[in-house]
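Quick one: examine this chain and its backbone structure tokens and tell me how the chain folds. Here goes:
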Amino acid sequence: MARITLENLAHSYLPNPESEDDYALKEMTHVWEDGQAYALLGASGCGKTTLLNIISGLLIPSQGRILFGERDVTDAPTTERNIAQVFQFPVVYDTMSVRENLAFPLKNRGSDPAYIARRVEEIARMIGLEDELRRKARGLTADAKQKISLGRGMVREDVNAILFDEPLTVIDPHMKWALRTQLKSLHRQFGHTMIYVTHDQTEALTFADKVVVMHDGRVVQIGTPEELFETPAHTFVGYFIGSPGMNLLPANIEGNRAYVNGTEIDLGRGYGKPQGKVEIGVRPEYLKLSSKAGLPVNIRRVEDVGRHKIVRAEFFGHDINIVAPEGTEVGADMTKVTFDPARINVYADDWRIAGEAA
């Protein structure tokens, strides 16, 4: 296992990049702690797989260094990094049995046969293939093959890190949940450093100790699921995390007051007078409808999703979403909305500003 340090790391696929826009990965410096489970989360094309391939050694960065512990592995080939990697689409040996596929990484390193047999049985139980060990991989379904690929990535206990590149794409939804749970159990048991690439926030938030959110080639926040939800460091995080995402409203800020179309909202904390593109962000869960107190809101429609209702509304010309708890009746007279000052975030040019006690 290893602490992974990314030092002044950046990458461009162009031979002579001239500006920041030419870089698929913008310059970054981060330390990922030994034994943690991380999820790399972001939309398609944001640089997740590029970063994972640099960590694994499949790609040499244009600039910067990668350290495993104190060792510089920037130019080291994948074989010298002592990692396991599971790819988006299954990579299996069709002519081998399930047992032989799972055992291959251990046999390749000359492990004791008794240990190999025991470890293969453990992993087969974990991925639900204990009754298929004698079958050839050729005749198995795509999701079964991906389970083999997952199992082969996890069979070794001595790796520095296990890297997963959207490994559950071909797995059915029920099995996705089961495998994520098993991956978490494996992490708790063996303490491997794990990095899991996904564009699915549910996968990221249920798998990881910390989520690394990427946007436009940049890491915009590393945090726990709670930190990403409560205090998004960037407007993209607010938008991308949550369903629906954070409401963002253009505003003028003066001290502890925000003004949206001239309407005053208490912020609870002081922010001075920030410049640039200034917005307030508030989660739909922290807005409350009322028939009596609050600011005027125009309800367009109500969507009942079972566990709660999503109210689509207009607030001074801006679209907002409001989450009403299960059992709440949204009456025609509920035309007011209140903001919880303690739950409002303030952003200038997309980055969160820390307020001071008012």
About this structure: The chain has a mean pLDDT of 89. The chain has two domains: 4-235, 245-357. The longest strand covers residues 4-11.
